[in-house]
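Re: the multi-chain job from yesterday

Posting the exact lines I submitted so nobody has to dig through the queue logs.
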Amino acid sequence: MATTGAGAPAITAPSSSTFTASSPFSLKASRTSHRQSARRVSVNVRCVSSPPADTSYKTKVPRNANMAKLQAGYLFPEIARRRAAHLLKHPDAKIISLGIGDTTEPIPDVITNAMAERAHALSTIDGYSGYGAEQGEKKLRSAIAATYYADLGIEDADIFVSDGAKCDISRLQVLFGSKATIAVQDPSYPAYVDSSVIMGQTGLYQQDVQKYGNIEYMRCTPENGFFPDLSTVARTDIIFFCSPNNPTGAAASRDQLTKLVKFAKDNGSIIVYDSAYAMYISDDSPKSIFEIPGAKEVAIETASFSKYAGFTGVRLGWTVVPKELLFSDGHPVAKDFNRIVCTSFNGASNIAQAGGLACLSPEGLKAMHDVVGFYKENTKIIVDTFTSLGFNVYGAKNAPYVWVHFPGRNSWDVFAEILEKANVVTTPGSGFGPGGEGFVRVSAFGHRDNIIEAARRLKQLYK
Amino acid sequence: MATTGAGAPAITAPSSSTFTASSPFSLKASRTSHRQSARRVSVNVRCVSSPPADTSYKTKVPRNANMAKLQAGYLFPEIARRRAAHLLKHPDAKIISLGIGDTTEPIPDVITNAMAERAHALSTIDGYSGYGAEQGEKKLRSAIAATYYADLGIEDADIFVSDGAKCDISRLQVLFGSKATIAVQDPSYPAYVDSSVIMGQTGLYQQDVQKYGNIEYMRCTPENGFFPDLSTVARTDIIFFCSPNNPTGAAASRDQLTKLVKFAKDNGSIIVYDSAYAMYISDDSPKSIFEIPGAKEVAIETASFSKYAGFTGVRLGWTVVPKELLFSDGHPVAKDFNRIVCTSFNGASNIAQAGGLACLSPEGLKAMHDVVGFYKENTKIIVDTFTSLGFNVYGAKNAPYVWVHFPGRNSWDVFAEILEKANVVTTPGSGFGPGGEGFVRVSAFGHRDNIIEAARRLKQLYK
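And the result, structure tokens for all chains:
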């Protein structure tokens, strides 16, 4: 229920029974039972009416080889699957999810009222609207530019409203195409790497190093303050950079981002800067890459209302593609991104956009600030818990994530231990890349009583 | 205003001034003024502080060559641009848009009430929900399966809820990958071809035949009853087939679809069947490809609430990928599509999904039926108008589109004539492929008084 915050992905993990369960429509399942029957009592074979295995009709369409490169399921559905398996074994377990980073607190009603009002208006002649601009409503684009980019030289037309950062990351990958090369922070949010694999930008997965070929992994560790040693990083076309980082919670300083922009400029690379957690920044780290002089010529920024206003299910975000950003032939990147957006997207839901506009009103901004403040208090409880137990803990200060070190241990083992012994779902660090091995990410999204209860159980487990 | 139904794309056409206008941030614009100044009075050059042209910073990231293949803007933004240009010349023109197929009638309040209720619930502890399943809410998937696919062997798990058919078409293209070959009806909805070009499945655009290389165009004309002569169609991996067709309005009969399924099966192809207008069918043409025996082994179906419930701006649709559909290596297509959806999408807006569920209640179904009936009455008015003027008119019976023949004339010329002389926006047939040359598509989406007024003006123009 509301205490788990896990949404419904449990039913949908790629490896779930949905696709393998026996059903009247599954020839594959029928084949299995055919064989099993045959092994047991051969006389039963005639009762099996399904055709034998090799007569299953297959199209002649080859599977996309890039899809075959992907490892296991996408991280979060996989966690949901393991959580569901645990529940099956322990139906009475009172699981607390500090796993997938899902928001739990209600959306402030200044925002939901605006969405309800828009919904009602759609049933009136005057209030009805059909297709909106693919790039988002003009008013919302203006409000985003004015709220987050005032004095940074970003204009309304540079803003593309989306149904969320994850969706725009894939659209950006389609824009760059299969020949682009990418770099990612290691560890980082898995959508960058997975979308790159799907687009065919990578080689095969190399089991020994747990990396895909042709991706530049920029190691971020406590030793380098979670900022990569750029002198060892090879040039790529695209650099995905998330700050505050998911999962480490580290926010890059002004000095670090200045180095990053210089690195991109020297190499002629494009930075895709994911600022989905910018409002969680407490110190003077930049909240936008465009605070760095010259960034408009080398960077795209993607952002989201999800973690500020609880819009994980409502779906609303934006991407900034400055008109100054040019491909090597001088063609503006924004012009091609506009074409992608017009061809493969039809705008975010108009009701969600009404919510976004309310988020950016004075009352909405105050309400989002309060939501962020609440989760930051949660973060402090989690940090205090692990610190009191003697763990080294990172992130947290500028992000809703606590990055806890379990030196020498396997992340999935720690994940399983905490799930089985404390009924708390976390996220194994290695799910974010090999650089996450030995860590787990603990999310601060949760009701206060759940955070306190999780803290109590963790103290019990690791006392 | 509400009478135009054109949304806001006018500000956003790829060739709009957004990307070329002079601004403090556009080096390119500064360069132009530099040169103009230099031509006029050389002494003024020193006043231009912008750097000269060749110092504009360019990244070293090559533009995706597939993007460069695309011709002009996506059709509908291009129409919006021409409409805006007309308005600029004639600011008092009372334009009626029967162009982009945008719905105009309010959403029935049984549906908007459900959306408003969900919005309000999101501000309560009990009613809040965060991330939903990427594939859609279980209840909605069940309702879609029960409403549209009862007795067709399609189960909840085969349904993927989306933010609209256009978006899912692009996700399907990413699934198939750059090596897939496609066939399209000619004429057809431009998103199939454009998304194919973007994915790199095609050759260059061949100006002489107005076709992209490596796409199989299946000609659909009055002569063949708008169903292609399959004996002349080359095998492709994917066959995009829209019925009732956009733009011709033709719905394929059961016999024709049986031939299509057999053709796909013989060739080992996958049909992507776009049924976005199925509820407009008045005769006994199938409303789903899955009414055809064996289709589950060769077809995907994509559908939408847009044209039934006025959800063009709310954004909600679905795609059916039957578990029986297998790639040549036996891998289920649904399993890979699930991975695409999990990686590049985060589910449709939960508020829109609440609306979808209300659409499928008994009251919602009745309300959608009434909306469809209203637009079908509009269709009749348009058909009667053109018929009375002696035009040959197609489609209309099973679709909200009237396909009007202007033999020997250029579609864009007819489009311009109707816009300039009657202030009515239509869609030039050639925008849907070379097979649409000599036709315009007239959309029946409009307020009744606008339809009647448009009919009056057209009678005046072509009397």
